[in-house]
Amino acid sequence: MNVSVDRAKCDNHGQCTFSAPTVFRLNEQGILEYDEKVDDSLRADVDEAADVCPMQAIIVTD
Amino acid sequence: MSTEIDVPYLYISDPSFAMHSEAVREARERHWYANTNYGFAVLRHEYVSTLLKDTRLSQGSGKWPDHNGVHSGLFYDWWTKCLLVLEGEDHHRIRRLLNPAFSFRHIEAYVPRFEQLATELVDAIIDRGEFEYVHDFAEPYATRVLCILTGIPESEWPTIARISSSIGLALGVTIKDDLPEIDNALAELYGYAEALIVDRQASPRDDLVTRLVEANRAGDSLSDDELRNALCLLIFGGMDTTRNQLGLGMQTMMQNPDQWELLAQRPELARNAVEEVMRMNPTTTWVTREAMVDFDYEDLHAPAGSTVHFFTQVSGTDPAAYPNPGMDITAERAPHYGFGGGMHHCLGHFVARMDMTIALRTLSQRMTNIRVSGVDEWMPDSGNTGPVYLPLAFDKR
């Protein structure tokens, strides 16, 4: 699956890092970094990350 | 050569201290933070946005009971284990298990119930031409929303409101004197929460409590104690804040009658109106953090253990982030921090956003020319604020 984050919306709260810690992480400056190509075995975690994002900034596509 | 920086000073414990004041605006213009009689206060939007999420700062409320002479008891045990004050992996685990039940798509399903509730409350006063906003609308609305969410019968809302106010005394400096009342109220709330958990474990439903009971990540789930603690936090954290924010929302709308009329004509702007209200007039006027280590940022040196406040209303009206800071419910704005931020970002914000959107939309559809019609009474402008008593008159639309 493909993951993208709308940087105009993302505010680096980091809630996604709790749902899918291997896909989303905050760097030392507190800025979100993430993998754009993710194995489908992580679909449930990534969907949860998108669901719980306070800014609704995460887009997941097949 | 070092430059001497003239850091402003604010005495924030003064009962007359006001966030919406020239002194605070002037301090924000002079420097990005101020020294106060109780820690540091970050004033500018850019700095609030960055530092609120800094992991060297912890949530900071965990030691509140200890700082005020309370070291044991039911409230103490609950508070020191509740999500609000947890840090690190203990926090992340619970937060992750709770988050999905509060996601937008689950909360959206409650819209028809919230609309029905708002309409019922407005119907009850619409022919009177006047009402007391806190007791006739904001408090029953905020409390019954929580009843709807948790499945507590709505008819029991006065009991839930009383329990919530009693536990709320724990946030005051008189916590030690009020402790018997606080502990009794929490025991009563435990009773409600435990009964809900037992019921949903036996008979699952399509509702929030069932989703929490069934929450499971990689074989990990919430224990009965963790579930009870979370439900109590939901009620404690969701009721007073929503009631107060609805009161502040009405205040801001009354100060901007053109925006109220625009909202009445374009109800789809209600969601944006909530954002504007929270940006300009948040109930949580500051969000508190504590430096876990010596915390240095530019010229700020906050020794380990010191308190750092993030002033939400002040940063929400910072002209550097909002060139036209006046209310405009059609504007696209930088985010405000009325729900805090970072890993402790408000868990229930989708609920609050949704229920306040419906409240403002419903009220604006039915009332115009709303004005204060008696002597109003307000909480002090520090920490959490809002109206205690707000008598209003209006014309029926």
Q: Would you mind describing this structure in some detail?
A:
The complex is a heterodimer of chains A (62) and B (397). Chain A is an alpha+beta fold. Chain A has one domain (2-61): Alpha-Beta Plaits (2-Layer Sandwich). Helix content of chain A is 23%, strand content 23%. Chain A has helices at 16-19, 43-52, and strands spanning 2-5, 24-26, 32-34, 58-61. A two-stranded antiparallel sheet of chain A has the order 1-4. The longest helix of chain A is centred in the C-terminal third of the chain and has 10 residues, at 43-52. Helices cover 50% and strands 13% of the residues of chain B. Chain B is built from 16 helices and 15 strands. Chain B has helices at residues 22-30, 45-51, 64-67, 74-79, 88-98, 104-108, 111-125, 133-150, 157-168, 175-202, 208-214, 224-255, 257-265, 270-280, 312-316, 349-366, and strands at 9-10, 33-36, 39-42, 57-58, 130-132, 216-217, 220-221, 286-291, 295-297, 300-302, 307-311, 367-372, 377-378, 387-389, 391-396. The mean pLDDT of chain B is 95. The radius of gyration of chain B is 21 Å and the shape is globular. Chain B has 397 residues and is an alpha+beta fold. The A-B interface holds A 11-15, 18-19, 26, 30, 48, 51-52, 54-56 and B 49-50, 53-55, 92, 95-96, 99-100, 102-105, 335, 339, 341-343, 345, 349.
